[in-house]
Design goal:
Blueprint lengths: L6 E5 L5 H10 L3 E5 L3 H8 L10 H7 L4 E4 L10 E4 L14 H10 L8 E4 L7 H14 L8 E4 L18 E5 L2 H11 L6 E3 L3 H31 L4 H8 L23 H13 L4 H27 L8 E5 L14 H12 L3 E5 L25 H6 L2 E4 L8 H7 L2 E4 L13 E4 L1
Parallel strand pairs: 1-2, 1-4, 2-3, 4-5, 5-6, 7-8, 9-10, 9-11, 11-12, 12-13
Antiparallel strand pairs: 6-7
The protein binds nicotinamide-adenine-dinucleotide (NAD).
Amino acid sequence: MESSGRTVGVIGLGYVGLPLLLAFREAGLSVTGVDIDPEKIRLLEAGETYLSHIPADRIRRVLSTDCILTTQMEALNQVEAVVIAVPTPLTDVMTPDLSFIEDTAVALGPHLREGQLISLESTTYPGTTREVLIPRLEAVSGLRVGTDFLVAFSPERVDPGQADHDITEVPKLVSGYDEQSLQRALDLYSTIVPEVVPCSGLEVAETAKILENLYRAVNIALVNEVKMLTDRMDLDIWEIIDAAGTKPFGFQAFYPGPGLGGHCLPIDPFYLNWRAKTKYDFEMRFVELAGQINTAMPAYVVERTRQALQDDGAELKGGEVLILGMSYKKDISDIRESPGLELMSLFEDKEGAVVSYHDPHVPRLPHTRKFPQFAGRESVSFDGPNLAAADVVIIVTDHTLIDYELVGSQAALIVDTRNAMKEVTAPAARIIKA
Ligand SMILES: NC(=O)c1ccc[n+]([C@@H]2O[C@H](COP(=O)([O-])OP(=O)(O)OC[C@H]3O[C@@H](n4cnc5c(N)ncnc54)[C@H](O)[C@@H]3O)[C@@H](O)[C@H]2O)c1
């Protein structure tokens, strides 16, 4: 791979940072990838992958030359620009946890050098770059933003696992602390995306990113609410959405599901709400309401399952429940905030059912803060006997790798939260959409 002589570093090599590192390298830049997790660095250096939708052969091919992989921030002293893609979760009391950004700024500060561009990509509330990142970088480095170094905010729009939304094909919002920062950032990102969209200020880009996610969260909540009504009316929400979707303007289809998951939709709107409340004395009712509806969806799926079993004269307590799909989204391995975990807990811990799961992307459940009791539990094999043994099969995530014909022919009762059975003709199983 040719090298352009340009250099960039990426801090945080997760769902956002690793694709960015690969894209910059593929565009001919020399790259330095830094992650606090030595296991990620070890795997990348060995040419292996830890994200199931990014194949190891791409990592071997792309990162074998002009690439430094390290846990040490000092390696970034040599690069022209540094992109930060560290997590921005919520605390236990649903307030922003900016500790990852703060720690990164403090660790990077001593290695900052004059003329460098630092670009934050983590999703966060408006004001973070100016009020949290910049002061720490300045304090630790002794350098001044605008004079000695440049700062940008450019939110990531990666859609993990969805090949048609590759980051190198999606326009990218770019904002800067000042005009020089903006121009340098536009120049940097132009190397990897077809269109850069300048924003007039850091807070504009920060807010735009959250608006994108809030828009999805609210519309999913809306369609989840309509679904709960159409279930009572004995109408099929999926058919209704398809029908409405034939309107060529003024309607965009969103689909119901068992609840929100991942590191974006269940979290980001609360960042904005927190900022609205604490700084502007403003309550975002849409955020609250969407949060309430989406959070209640796993319990709704449990109720639908209970009713379906009762109709068959069976009980949830002591029944065998097989969950298909544990990651929060199709064709990836990310289980953060996944409704699959919530459902597993509700069925097992609350209802006393016997729960197993199958997920081709999640062979074993990692430790999670909310559900430590499931750490180490393994995906059962996907086969006829396991499907037939379950009193009910719950489709939580519609992975492409799952053979839905087999599910339809072997399972007795299916609760389908994703309309995954739509293509299956004449299934033997009774199917409840939930
Ligand atoms: N996952 C998505 O689909 C997505 C999409 C758009 C935006 N985002 C946003 O991007 C940001 C990152 O999300 P993600 O999904 O990539 O998270 P992730 O957990 O997959 O990756 C973050 C990485 O940062 C590393 N890290 C944490 N602290 C560090 C430090 N001090 N120094 C170096 N490395 C450190 C972690 O080890 C991890 O590998 C978040 O703000 C998220 O909201 C995520």
